[in-house]
Specification:
single chain; Aldehyde Dehydrogenase, Chain A, domain 1; Aldehyde Dehydrogenase, Chain A, domain 2; seven-stranded mixed β-sheet; binds NADPH dihydro-nicotinamide-adenine-dinucleotide phosphate
Length: 469
């Protein structure tokens, strides 16, 4: 069991090539991390490959038992992990943030370990007999982002290990401490070499993807990088799961009770201070309820405290990095200069020490505005007025990504009809963005491909084999 200090000491490096890690809320130094190069990557790959046959030779029950012990280890150090995550990523301890994320790591591991994947008899007609098995791929390369650095790592690592693969993981350069700390705790319960971590700075991701040792790459991040990964893994025909974010639309129908849905709308858009792949990033509201929804949402949003993650009262934090702050600021400025109406926020404090951007709601904005068309990935929500639901569906579908979407209505049947016409991997009804370890999750269009979670998630980190006869 770790304290924050012992965990930080376990992942801090002071000799060799290192990089400073700064608190995004204050700019203070938290620690320093090692910067691995190609030689370290090659060694990690070698260790993971060497460990794979023995790991795959365990029975499924044995691997499940090990994953249970990994979950126990994370649970035992959950306070330390949550504090480190909060300091490095910026997300508050409370609300659907750091403690929630570490708790989700534990529950996802347990659910992934418990998911049945029986051998499937595909034909048994007296003449033919064929079974479908799922075998390990070998070694899986995992590249994780900075928004949910621990939970997304577990989403990729847990099913890979369960299916008999070993893993080389590369955390985002923005949240390396979180990735290293999670792996250090997991490795207390894993055999050596089963989970390796490399901590790069700028070009290691591309090197990892090109390495022919990987039969599979799992990546969560931007569409632009996803395309590069697809191109550079082509030579090895590595299998891919790409979760590339989106620009999720929410459609509010005229029959809603605005006050009743306001909090759900808020968290759908602002979870993790908006830095969430499947957060609601554009809200289409029917004219009949437009003003009431705007008012109710602004009231909820104005009461949500934003500040340093370690202060217990906060539920919103800073943006994790300056790059993302600049994106949000540029898009809100574009909205303001177009004459859109700022209901809340929109004026960052230029004196603030961290990457804070205030909770921002922008009403009466044109659908063509960059704040609507581009992914803001931060705490700024455009609210677009519509009068014909056909128009709302058209606008919702008129982007080249499709991770999630939502429909908000008192009429579930009507909402489901609209849901079926939305181009998104998941459509939620009267909520947005909730994920569950047994419910498959993945995008369409340029949000990527491949399903995570549940039995589908296990199949995606395995190779099918037919035994015929
Ligand atoms: P990127 O999606 O560009 O991902 C960066 C990660 O990918 C790093 O680990 C990097 O490693 C690796 N990488 C970069 N180039 C390659 C390559 N050619 N081959 C393999 N790996 C590569 O994220 P950013 O952090 O730059 O964020 C950009 C935008 O992505 C955000 O503004 C946001 O819109 C979106 N995003 C989406 C997320 C989601 O959940 N879907 C999460 C985070 C961001 P290295 O530096 O070592 O090369």
């Amino acid at each position: 069991m770790h304290t924050y200090e012992s965990l930080l000491a376990a992942v801090t490096t002071t000799s060799g090539e290192t990089r400073e890690v700064l608190d995004p809320a204050t700019g203070e130094r938290i620690g320093s991390v090692r910067v691995d190069g190609t030689a370290e990557l090659d060694r990690a790959v070698e260790r993971a490959r060497a460990a794979q046959p023995e790991w795959a030779a365990l029975t499924d029950d044995e691997r499940v038992a090990v994953l249970g012990r990994v979950a126990d280890a994370i649970e035992a150090s959950s306070d330390a992990l949550a504090e480190l995550l909060s300091r490095e990523q910026g997300k508050p301890l409370n609300g659907p943030n750091a403690r929630f994320e570490v708790g989700a790591c534990v529950s996802w591991l347990r659910a992934t370990a418990a998911t049945p994947l029986p051998v499937e008899v595909v034909v048994d007609d007296g003449e033919n007999y064929a079974e479908l098995h799922y075998r390990p791929i070998g070694t899986v390369g995992v590249i994780t982002p900075w928004n949910w650095p621990m939970m997304i790592a577990i989403w990729q690592i847990a099913p890979s290990l369960r299916m008999g693969n070993t893993v080389v993981a590369k955390p985002s350069e923005y949240t390396t401490l979180s990735g290293l700390a999670l792996a250090a705790v997991m490795n207390e319960a894993l055999p050596e070499g089963v989970l390796e971590v490399v901590a790069g700075d700028g070009s290691l991701g591309a090197e990892l993807v090109k390495n022919p040792a990987f039969g599979k790459i799992m990546f969560t991040g931007s569409t632009a990088t996803g395309k590069k990964i697809m191109a550079s893994s082509a030579d090895n025909l590595a299998r891919l799961t790409l979760e590339l974010g989106g620009n999720d639309a929410g459609i509010v129908l005229p029959d809603v009770d605005p006050a009743a849905i306001a909090e759900g709308l808020f968290w759908g858009a602002f979870i993790n201070t908006g830095q969430t792949c499947a957060a609601m990033k554009r809200l289409y509201v029917h004219d009949d309820v437009y003003d009431a929804v705007c008012e109710a949402l602004a009231e909820v949003a104005s009461k949500m405290p934003m500040g340093r993650g370690l202060d217990e009262q906060n539920v919103l934090g800073p943006l994790q990095n300056r790059m993302q702050w600049e994106v949000v600021n540029r898009l809100v400025e574009a909205a303001k200069s177009s004459g859109a109406r700022v209901l809340l926020g929109g004026q960052p404090d230029s004196e603030a020490s961290g990457h804070f951007y205030p909770t921002t709601l922008v009403a009466d904005i044109d659908d063509a505005n960059p704040l609507v068309q581009e992914e803001q990935f931060g705490p700024a929500l455009p609210i677009i007025r519509y009068s014909d639901v056909e128009e709302a569906i058209r606008m919702a579908n008129a982007v080249d990504v499709g991770l999630g979407a939502s429909v908000w209505s008192a009429d579930r049947a009507k909402a489901r009809e609209i849901a079926a016409r939305l181009e998104a991997g998941t459509v939620w009804i009267n909520s947005h963005g909730g994920v569950h370890p047994m419910i498959p999750f993945g995008g369409v269009k340029q949000s990527g491909f491949g399903l995570e979670f549940g039995a589908e998630g296990l199949k995606s980190v395995a190779v099918p084999q037919i035994i015929n006869g």
